[in-house]
Amino acid sequence: MTASPKVLAYCVLERSENSFGPAGVDGQPVRLLQVSDLVALYSDFSAARALTQEDALRFHSVLKGAFGRQAIIPFRFPTFLDDESSLREQLTANYPKYAADLVRLRGFVQMELRISTQQKEESRASGKEYLQAKSRQMRSVEESACMAREACADLVADFKEVATDQGVRLYALTKRVDAEVFRQRIQNINVPASLKIVVSGPWPGTEFLSE
Amino acid sequence: MASPNVIAIGGDGSDELSLLDILDHVLNSGVVIQGSIVISLGGVDLIYVGLSVVLTSVETALRTIEADRKRSLDRGE
Lengths: 211, 77
Hints:
The complex is a heterodimer of chains A (211) and B (77).
Chain A: E1 7-14, E2 31-35, E3 38-44, H1 53-67, E4 72-81, H2 84-93, H3 95-105, E5 108-117, H4 127-152, E6 156-163, E7 167-175, H5 179-187, E8 195-203
Chain B: E1 6-9, H1 19-28, E2 36-41, E3 44-49, E4 54-57, H2 58-74
Antiparallel strand pairs in B: 2-3, 3-4
């Protein structure tokens, strides 16, 4: 029951003089749909075919091109709408929320930390020992998350922390101009050998969008 | 000095974001619009449904359905 989508939506951003890349997914030109001072980027997607990894990467390239110059609100891949007027309806219906978020995110990017334990789970003599070891690992992850927060506190407008199976994901909203400094400070944190931190970004501030 | 346990990806002048990170972001981050569609990505069918997105492989979904059906048969329902 593969649907026959017509329009693939990429992102919403504030209107600007920037141009947006030559080609979107499937080699289609990236089009702009304007509602007041916001624009949505989209392209036609007429082919009734399966999407590929290459499509996802092309989608990312379009987002990257737009996000390289200003804040964007990306749509999750793949977001299909019937036609341009459906996209206009969505943009109009959500205009207040999108506009407020884009003003709030102006000049900001999201940096991400994945803090995880590197220790392989050893067999424990008892459930109690297992729980104690797990507790120690989580405490260590939390302490590193605290160190990361403290190291970059002056650079960050907002933090968000999400627990994962292996540790935590820490999202930081920082000014675009501070992204490299943020990265350097995280790289200089003294991390216990049992932990690993992966810092990535800059990304669009998706974790800091209003509900 | 940079800690050996801290790995930095992406950043100024580099294009080192891993494929996994990129796919994680395009598939899991961003605004969701109500819809119902079945897609295929990288040869794996994915189900993408509704406002709160459920993204799972069709294979997994079918296995779950089949397991439920077998349990029902075993119980004589």
